[in-house]
Write a structure and sequence with these properties.
This protein folds into two domains: 158 residues, Ribosomal Protein S5, domain 2; 123 residues, Alpha-Beta Plaits. 36% of the residues lie in helices and 25% in strands. It has ten helices and eleven strands. It binds L-homoserine (HSE). L-homoserine binds next to helix 4 and helix 5.
Length: 294
């Protein structure tokens, strides 16, 4: 096998209470082609400044090749970029997961899924996006004292509609993390712990009352909201349209709302004249994660 096409879904991390540990995969995809070549690295389909060996798709491809001891020379073609960049929908995880998956597959799958996941997590720095990007559905992840990641994948109920709200501005992850306090109150820790303990089962059951409660959070969102332009207006619009919960997707700038019926059209109508170009898009859960495609 010399060539492979790989599709990786967008991901939404945190889901309110699951700060830095939970994420879901959504049906919005980046598609890449990887082809073995005798020497060097060629990257096609992105701006010149990213077409070099620092591109995360190549970094991940090479990391897997180095681990298995094979030639990392490759031509990477970015075929489709459905996942917006720097918007809290896991675009960097799509690069990393595609590169690692392709390198393993093109060399006969010597690494297990878990080993590929480990490499992806190390490159991304945390597992909350790479786990659902690789495995699909809802993933709850932990890392042990050696930083080895473990994840549990949970099926997501079809009762829930997922609508992302994407603005025209970016929120830098670095700024969103710098906005967080170093210390948290015990009652806030307990508030999130008790919710995240039920988060996976709430997504699995699709019980709207439970989801309404367990997606609430006190550890990150209230500190980050000042970085978002007119987020309160958009949040109010989502609730007026029938959302059961509203949360920041990853570190932003996209937000995510859950509902029991489709609210995309109603919401777009309500927000269309608001500043900052917010657009609502309903997305299904991606069950399969990173996948070889025709
Ligand atoms: N869990 C991370 C955060 C996601 O909220 O900062 C960003 O990559």
């Amino acid at each position: 096998m010399n060539k492979i096409k790989v599709r990786v879904p967008a991901t939404s991390a945190n889901l309110g209470s699951g700060f830095d540990c939970c994420g879901i995969a959504l049906e919005l995809y980046n598609v890449f082609e990887y082809e073995k070549i005798p020497k060097g690295v060629i990257i096609i389909g992105c701006e010149d400044e990213y077409a070099n060996e620092n591109n995360l798709a190549y970094v991940a491809y090479k990391a897997v090749c180095d681990k298995i001891g094979v030639n990392p020379s490759v031509k990477i073609t970015i075929l489709d970029t459905g996942v917006p960049v720097s918007r809290g929908l896991g675009s960097s995880a799509t690069l990393i997961c595609s590169g690692a998956y392709a390198a393993n597959k093109l060399h006969g799958c010597p690494l297990s899924k878990e080993e590929v996941f480990e490499i992806c997590t190390e490159l991304e720095g945390h597992p909350d996006n790479v786990a659902p990007a690789l495995f699909g559905a809802f993933c709850t992840s932990v890392t042990d004292m050696h930083n080895n990641p473990y994840t549990v994948r949970t099926h997501v109920s079809k009762r829930i509609h997922f609508t992302v709200l994407i603005p025209d501005f970016e929120v830098k992850t670095q700024d969103a993390r710098a906005a967080l306090p170093q210390m948290v109150k015990r009652e806030d820790a307990v508030y999130n712990m008790s919710r995240v303990a039920l988060l996976a089962s709430a997504f699995k059951s699709g019980d709207p009352e439970l989801l309404r409660i367990v997606t609430k959070d006190r550890l990150h969102q209230r500190y980050r909201k000042p970085l978002f332009k007119n987020i309160e207006d958009v949040e109010n619009a989502a609730y007026e349209c029938g959302a059961i919960s509203f949360m920041i997707s990853g570190a932003g700038s996209t937000c995510l709302c859950l509902s029991t019926k489709s609210i995309e059209n109603k919401l777009n109508e309500k927000i269309k004249n608001m500043p900052n170009g917010w657009v609502a898009k309903e997305l299904k859960i991606s069950k399969y994660g990173t996948k070889e495609v025709e």
